[in-house]
Amino acid sequence: MPSIIKETVALASGFEANIAIVHIDHFSVDPFNWVPPSEMVLRTEAALATGRLGAETYPVLHPSVRVARPVTYAGFENQIEIWSERVSTIARHYQDAGISLAKLWHDRRGTTPSAYPVPLAHTDLMRLRSATLAKTQIFANGNYFLFEPRELDTPFEAYGDPVGMVASVGTILNPPQLPRACLVSDGSTSTIRHLSFADINIMLPGALTIDAHQRGTLDAEQTASTPIAIARYYGSTGGRTDRGKNVVEVAIVGRHAVAMSKGGDMPIPRSGCVIRFPNEPEKSIIAALRSGEPVSYSLTTGRLVDGVQAGPQLVTNGVIENGDAIFHQEGFFVEDEQGDLIQPSPFNWKADWHHTRAARLGAGFDAAGRLFFLGVEGQSSYTKSGGPLRGATLHDLAELLVRYGAVDAMHLDGGGSTQLFRPFGGSILRPGNFCRGFEDVEADYDRPLPLGLRLELANMDVRG
Fold this sequence. Notes:
Elements: E1 4-10, E2 16-31, H1 39-53, E3 57-59, E4 66-74, E5 79-84, H2 85-96, H3 101-108, E6 118-120, H4 126-129, E7 137-140, E8 144-145, E9 162-163, E10 166-168, E11 171-174, E12 180-185, E13 190-195, E14 200-204, E15 208-212, E16 216-217, H5 220-223, E17 228-230, E18 234-235, E19 243-253, E20 256-264, E21 272-277, H6 283-291, E22 296-299, E23 306-309, E24 313-316, E25 319-320, H7 323-329, E26 334-335, E27 341-342, E28 360-365, E29 371-376, H8 394-403, E30 408-412, E31 420-421, E32 451-457
Parallel strand pairs: 3-6, 15-17, 16-18
Antiparallel strand pairs: 1-2, 2-29, 2-32, 4-5, 5-20, 7-31, 7-32, 8-9, 10-11, 10-23, 12-13, 12-23, 14-15, 14-22, 17-21, 19-20, 19-21, 24-25, 24-30, 26-27, 28-29, 28-30
């Protein structure tokens, strides 16, 4: 069987689409955000992001980079002591724009686009990164990432930050959040797992292990005497921690502490968590976190070497999932404190089963447990332009995966993020990204991404 097959097929919805099926021996995760890309790539990313967002953008460093000395920023009720260069830069831009933390919180959650500047995390162009691939490898996109200004409602986050679990070379770089499907590998076997924030423990410097809060609002009795890790919807449904007279809280982005506050009411980053101490913790713990020593995440069950979280699950035991049920199960819609359904990140993701058409990427396992990727070329159905090959619905993708042998399958990030590159930039499917600022321009853009999935092909027989 050839490793890569390209075909034009009829979809279940009656349209045609170009597809690629890629048979995989194994995969690994390559994060792109540790080292800033070249100046040319930075300018390109900023231009594309500015055009798409319709707002000024500015780059911010990795959260591990420390400031020379702690600085403070006015929080909702308390002062936030800033430890990272990233947060210091964000705070400075918001102060220059005349926006407070509380005003930022409400502005980002409004119904109209925000005109306030948007912090831009390090991402990279996968086409350029493909120069590092071996002949037996290709690059694919994988996870969701912060993509809308309204998702950046704290001073800790930036456009391009991964959302959900990311693991590489045995280290969990970003914790899982809502219980969405993850493509994971333990180093020898790949599978799909559903992981949430409740499935991890957090180890602080000094080997202090912190439990993750279970789903729901804060358990006051549990947190009265024991440190706890809180995420959105895991200890808070409103996105901030509860107030507390003596509590000390540390905001974590990825694996790095970026800020501290006293008294609670700490905004919770989507790409990390908040460690809540009921009282002043040992000075050595705070000193270690402030100096940049990373926290560690571990699963409460099993282990993994590489993995990314996206979702939803499309196929289970050979049966296509019920779309509405799986959206709620995996937290694409969540009930808030007032009982209303809200859409968590990714905010602009169209959670429907049969209507929205877009470029798609799915991962499936056949009856023998072999992994394959299936990509569908196309443009989103809610763009102004597009030819007859406009992509697939989620149901189309699920049906294709079953048609080509999937017993279990999941959706990876799609739309303009859908990218499959051979070594040195040969695109297996035509990219379909667009920028809102350039909607009338008939051109395709490579979307900068925070990571790539390095796929080792099952064999070298390639056609297409």
